Amino acid sequence: MKSQRVRIAIWRRVILAVLRVEVTFTDIEALASGKSVILTCNHQSLLDGLILAFACPVKMVFPVTPKHSIDNPFTSHGLRLLERLGLGRVVPLNSDHPFALRQLQRALGAGQSVAIFPEGRIAGPEELLPHKAGVQWLQERTGAKIVRARLAGADESRLFARAGTRFRPKITLEIGTGG
């Protein structure tokens, strides 16, 4: 796959560099088309949503568990700050309640794009979680294209991952991976 150049604001590139994130785009056309997409990504750490928000060239709707988006004052204020910075919108979503997916369906119907972690929670370093049915359900009802992303290295973060061993691991994000 050929890497493609994408224009991201310099302040966002600086934050990604501080986090030691290297981003590669291999299918920017899908994101830049102006049509709704469902961006799926593996979930390794508490940084993953932030990394996607800083790296994506378009605003996304991010479903976030109510534990982090509402109940925890630290994370809920941080997520609201990211919304005010124009990095997307947070929707509280409990993955155990499938009716909550209708909020994402409405967002896709309104022309917005959604970034979702199909496992529904952070996986451990050796854990392979099955994908929940929500992504397929959304795609069938909205016709939005699914764009896949792949994170590597975030699970090594001692501060933000379950069993990390490094304070500042190198993290890679590839957006537009096949299959």
Main attributes?
179 residues, alpha/beta, seven-stranded mixed sheet, 32% helix, 22% strand
Brief digest:
The chain has 179 residues and is α/β, with parallel strands linked by helices. Helix content is 32%, strand content 22%.
- H/E series: HEHEHEHHEHEHEE
Q: Give the strand order, joined by hyphens, for the main sheet.
A: 1-7-6-2-5-3-4
What is the oligomer described by this structure?
A: single chain
- Give me the number of helical elements: 7
Task: Describe, in plain words, how this protein is organized in 3D.
There is one protein chain. The chain has 179 residues and is an alpha/beta fold. The chain is 32% helix and 22% strand. The longest helix has 12 residues, at 73-84. It starts with 9 loop residues before the first helix and ends with a strand.
Show the helix and strand layout.
Blueprint: H1 10-18, E1 21-25, H2 28-32, E2 37-41, H3 48-55, E3 60-64, H4 66-71, H5 73-84, E4 88-92, H6 101-109, E5 113-116, H7 134-142, E6 145-152, E7 171-177
Parallel strand pairs: 1-7, 2-5, 2-6, 3-4, 3-5
Antiparallel strand pairs: 6-7
Helix pairs in contact: 6-7
